[in-house]
Amino acid sequence: MEIRRISPEFAVSPQITVEDVGAAAAQGYRSIVCNRPDGESDPQPRSDEIRQAAEDHGLGFRNVPVVSGQVTDGDVSEFGRALSELPGPVLAYCRTGTRSSTLWALSKAPRLSADAILEAVGGAGYDLQALRPRLEAATGKVLPPAPAVRHDVVIVGGGAGGIATAASLLKRRPGLDIAIVEPRDDHYYQPGWTLVGGGVFDRADTMRPMASVMPKGVKWIRTAVSGFAPERSEVILEDGGRIGYRALVVSPGLKLDWDKVEGLRETLGRNGVTSNYLFDMAPYTWELVRTLKGGKAIFTQPPMPIKCAGAPQKAMYLSADAWSRSGRIKDIDIEFCNAGGALFGVADYVPALMEYVARYNATLSFGHNLVKVDGEARKAWFDVTKDGKTERVEKAFDMLHVCPPQTGHDFIRRSPLADAAGWVEVNSETLQHARYGDIFGLGDGCSTPNAKTAAAVRKQAPVVAENVLSVLDGKAPHAVYDGYGSCPLTVERGRIVLAEFGYGGVLLPSFPTWMINGKLPSRLAWLLKEKMLPWIYWDGMFKGREWLAGPRILPMSPTAREALDACDFKDQRKAS
């Protein structure tokens, strides 16, 4: 827990946990205020869980949820009432602490000067200068809105896509004015979580401080994005501030929608229910694998699209391999419940996978979509679709590994950048936005019909970098992405089926078959996954090194190039 004191009676914090409530009480806080709506992002404690913990420790509690970037006068009034009615000192929290500090600042505006307020929140690490006009207005001194700070390139998201794109941009044009908007303090190597759940990697090795991976020369804006104003070439931050851009890169990732499965959030991490899709949960997967002596083990996969479509079955294979090595597999009934109709989307790799399904005596249940979990009763319910009919089926389990349903983030889905399905709508080849020529997107949150993997991002980032610079120079995008994605399917400890493919399931192997035949399990592919890929991620992608990932430049006749260059892509904007 990171508590930042703003005044003797008030402090803010990023999202807290149930365990943090006791620590806050020990530090003398007597009340807690929640400013974050439930279900805003990946698993966060519900406000009622924090309320119960607060009551258990004798603390006051008030829930004043505020939508990111939309702090209303009503929100400020309700927050002010909470501060006046609750015993102090008060600790308020949201995703990053920005909304809570914004609410405090606006609630104090009628009695304190803007300078005093901004100095207080600034001392706690929150730059709220964009609030000055609103603060001044509250004291009767109305000033015109402050102009947005502008950068050549603004990147939304400090995940693999955002960091790699910044590195590729700076490789091509050192000194380019780039800002990355990212609220998290840590960066995660998510492809490693499968191996954490398989007992191969240590969880700590998949995390590094965000500051250590930010490319030198990039301005890191440590807050969240609440929306976009593409007609003004501006990004709206959660405190209401705005950042202008000449070109925008959107790489927000996606939302793990745990609440779409009834009862899942409440039991996740206990009662035998786990998921490798979470940093905090992958070690629990390995704990369950090590301790399960017999019974029923179910592995689930929701409807597509999902991040790394092979990950749900990777968890099954590594678990089954561990049980096989320890002699327990004969006592464990393994079932893979897939909402889809095939084991893997590219048929060339299925025969090798089916050999391992047979080796582990696993049952494949297609058309099975997980909809409800009762962890204490060790029961799960699936909507099973067959021949156009759907029925609800109950299954008992001793271990349940869940891949959650996945969607675009809320702030993307409600923005003018989204398509009908809630993803950033981009051209599948140039990755330029379908309606705004100065905007590009990449990564898991985009509409491209490729596999959502880190390997895809490794190929997309150089394409985006090349095309962003073309647009900044007033030219047409000329680099293309072929849909490349890679899924190293860990079928056993020490062997991998290395699936590499592009749009339409076309095979796109990186190595000759005499070295790695992707259709067969390979020890060399395991070495690549375990030893080489983390190094390529941290020291290749994030340093602008584009090994086997250089962009393909669009061939174009002189006449076509002259015609495209005549287009003013910098001002190609249409109202959505």
From TrEMBL:
Please report the stretch or stretches of sequence annotated as the Beta-lactamase hydrolase-like protein phosphatase-like domain.
3-109
Gene3D superfamilies xref list? FAD/NAD(P)-binding domain, Protein tyrosine phosphatase superfamily
What cofactors are annotated for this protein? FAD
Keyword Oxidoreductase in the entry? The reply is yes
Provide a Gene Ontology MF annotation, just one: FAD binding
Query: What domain of life is recorded for the organism?
Result: Bacteria
The yes or no answer to whether the keyword Transferase is present is no
Q: Which Pfam families match?
A: BLH_phosphatase, Pyr_redox_2
Q: Where is the FAD/NAD(P)-binding domain?
A: 151-264
List keywords of the entry alphabetically.
FAD, Flavoprotein, Oxidoreductase, Quinone, Transit peptide
A single GO BP annotation from the record? sulfide oxidation, using sulfide:quinone oxidoreductase
Q: Which PANTHER family match?
A: SULFIDE:QUINONE OXIDOREDUCTASE (PTHR10632), SULFIDE:QUINONE OXIDOREDUCTASE, MITOCHONDRIAL (PTHR10632:SF2)
Query: Under which name does UniProt file this protein?
Result: TIGR01244 family phosphatase
Organism for this UniProt entry: Thalassobaculum fulvum
